Amino acid sequence: MADKEKKLRRELLRNKYNDKGFDALTEEEKLELLLSFSCTGDTAQLAKELLSEYGSINALADADTELLMKDKKVSEQASVLIKLIPCLSRTLYLERFKITTLNSSDSAKSFFTSHFIGAVGEQLIITAVNKRFRVVNTKVLAFGSPSQTYASYRDIADFAVKSSCTIFFMAHNHPQGVSRPSDSDILFTKNVSNTLLRLGSVLADHIIIGADSAFSFRESGLIPNFSSSTLTGYSCK
């Protein structure tokens, strides 16, 4: 495509966006418009090839950063811009739909789902809440590989002691998988619960966020003596 044609196409695409809005664009046009701010080549063809390879803009944005940057079709500027999409989405979501009280498994799932938007790989998060289940502090305890995330029980205990709270939530994500817990997830949850109990604290719930669903340990009943009836003020629904 000649330079004049590319310039004209980009102008027409921006005009379509300005006049009719984002929803009026096809998925290919949406990606093409985004790429036009970071690529000098044929962004229409590049958008077509990327969607053919990855399937959707969502899948492209979730692609491994290093893998994306190794793609000869994608410049470093373009890969950074693409990866910014979910990060900006998370920021906007947290500001507009801020959840401050985790008094149910539903609210906990929503809270942690928003925190993992745009996460690269697995992360383990701990959140402290007060007696009314209002969020006091949240911290990322560990980053892991796509299949496993590790955190020491000492780190968890240190956070608990410094927070001056007695109720805590754990959460981690399975970016490319289902939210159903593995055997190691179950064992980890039991050990965290016991660690907090020895400090006079309680693990309200452990939430797992998958690619398309969320899982609550307390709601599931997988762990004995770890049900909603044992924690006043927290409901599973």
From TrEMBL:
One of the protein's GO biological processes: proteolysis
Keywords: Hydrolase, Metal-binding, Metalloprotease, Protease, Zinc
Record-annotated MPN domain positions: 72-223
Alphabetized GO MF terms: metal ion binding; metallopeptidase activity
Family: Belongs to the UPF0758 family.
The protein's name in its UniProt record: DNA repair protein RadC
Species in which this protein is naturally found: Ruminococcus flavefaciens
